[in-house]
Structure formats: C-alpha cells, structure tokens
Amino acid sequence: DNFKPLPICMNKNFLIKIGVVIIKKRNIVLVAVFVLILVSGIRLFISTQEINSLKEDTISYLTDKGYDILDDIEEMNIVDIDQNEQSNAVIVTFKDEPKVDYFYTYDTDKDHLIQIDAVNKGTEEPLKHQES
C-alpha cells in the first residue's frame, strides 16, 4: 500500500513519448537543413555553369569577330549586372585600349551575345572596339 504512482513527468511511457517527439523534431530540423544545403548547392552549381558558359561564349564571340584572345585581350571578368535577376556580363579590356571596359552579355532571347556598353575610364579618344 506504499505504492504511489509516479507523477506524469516521471512516467516511463511518457518519457519515451517525449523522447520520440524530440527525435522527430530533431529529424525535421536535420531534413530542413539538408534541403537548404542541397538547394544552395544546386543554385551555386547552376550559377557557376552559367558563368562559365557566358565566359566561353564571349571568347568564341570575340574570336569570331577576329580578335586573338591571348594577343588582344588584357583582362576578362564576370560581373552581376542586375540585382533582381541573375544576369551577368563579361567585362573585356583590350590591350590596345586599357582605359576602356566593354560589357558583353546575352541578348534578351539568350540566343546570342551582344556588346551592351563601354565604360571609358579617363580617356577622350574614340573607342576602338565599340559595336553599334
């Protein structure tokens, strides 16, 4: 008759149920973190592929225009040109015109490259490589 039931918080079955709930919540958190990492990795991979394609297409475009990439090009860099959309451009600096940056990106139909701008960094000379 000295038997006293354990309070609900000390009941073995209750503790097992609480443990299962904690494990389920932990698993949900782990799955959510895994999904976020996976989505981020996929976005990074796709973005890297798009950037590489843009740079390769720009090299092909300039080669088709008659430029020798090693002899004529001083520098090529990729920049993000639109904060709202994932839109990149390649900045090309020619060796014979080091104070001018030319911007190349895909046309709106993403079918071919175009020169979208030229930024003159301190010279008044006419631009040598500007396309109309």
Structure description:
The chain has a four-stranded antiparallel sheet. The protein starts with 11 loop residues before the first helix and ends in a 12-residue tail after the last strand. 43% of the residues lie in helices and 27% in strands. The protein has helices at 12-64, 69-72, and strands spanning 73-82, 87-94, 97-106, 113-120. The chain is an alpha+beta fold and 132 residues long. The radius of gyration is 29 Å and the shape is rod-shaped. It has two helices and four strands.
Give the helix/strand layout.
Elements: H1 12-64, H2 69-72, E1 73-82, E2 87-94, E3 97-106, E4 113-120
Antiparallel strand pairs: 1-2, 2-3, 3-4
In short:
The protein has 132 residues and is of the alpha+beta class. It contains two helices and four strands; from the N terminus they run H-H-E-E-E-E. Strand 1 (73-82) and strand 2 form a beta hairpin.
Termini, distance in Å?
100 Å
The dominant shape is rod-shaped
Strand order of the largest sheet: 1-2-3-4
The helix-strand sequence is HHEEEE
Count every helix, treating DSSP H or I runs of 4 or more residues as helices: 2
